[in-house]
UniProtKB/TrEMBL annotation:
Lineage: Bacteria, Pseudomonadati, Bacteroidota, Flavobacteriia, Flavobacteriales
GO MF term set: DNA-binding transcription factor activity; sequence-specific DNA binding
Residues in the signal sequence: none
Domain HTH araC/xylS-type: 181-281
Record keywords: DNA-binding, Transcription, Transcription regulation
Taxonomic superkingdom: Bacteria
Gene3D superfamilies: Homeodomain-like
Name under which the protein is recorded: HTH araC/xylS-type domain-containing protein
The keyword Transcription appears for this protein: yes
Pfam families linked: HTH_18 (PF12833)
Amino acid sequence: MNKHFPQKIQGIKSFNQYVKAEMPKHDWIDIGFYPDSFILTSPPVCPNFYRISIKFELEDEDGRSLMFFSSPNQPIEWDVKKPFKGYYIQITEDIIANYQHLEYSFLTYGLHEPLYLEKEEEMIITQIFKDALREYESADFSMNLLLAYCNLMFAHVSKFYERQFGERKEKYNRLVNDFFELLNTYYNNNNQNVTQPTVTYFAKKLNITPNYLSDLIRFHTGKPVLEHIHLQIIDTSKSLLKSNKHTVSEIAYKLGFEYPNYFSRLFKKVTGKSPSNFQNQ
């Protein structure tokens, strides 16, 4: 396996063979508990489906249970010293795409932000896993019922993440501050071959996923991260427009826009004025 290119694993069955878990009963969805045979160490691998898991008795976690999430082709790796307990749901990309009410942003958080469960939350999530597993193991399980269990679990998880965002302020304040520092200095540090700032760019710089960054910034500021990016673009453009040293088109290119009319459209949307009217006022 090339350490620079994580192994791609196609399908739930292939992944279960790799980790030494029970074979799935269905190609689209798999629900199970972690067996003692589950491998304890793995280099980065990229399953092509979603994984949702709860793990108990992990080392160095003070007895707290954690939930982890990964999305298709997102690298995951682990290295634990002893077997752990827990449950998992594995579900294909097509299922999530076809049932859009299941498309929660935390599904793409990856290993960057596990959910630390309080005891009451752990009881709620564990019971849903048990109920879903009981249905999955029945001879004629209902796919609709399994997806309903997923939907119920995801709604709880979304609520629990809000609690976590509010509690772990020191960590999150640092991330939020780092984001705004990167945003405020973006054009100063990208003078050559500048491109428009994107959510993906900042997420990569902060080593988190775009959805995680978006949810974090929205929770702490009340505004989407893209709105903050657009406001920074407009503030920078206003200074350039006021200087009267550049045409509107030149400013658009300096800000990373491939087409000046896209910049003009954004400027008017945010300010209510065209760039030329602002420059000439």
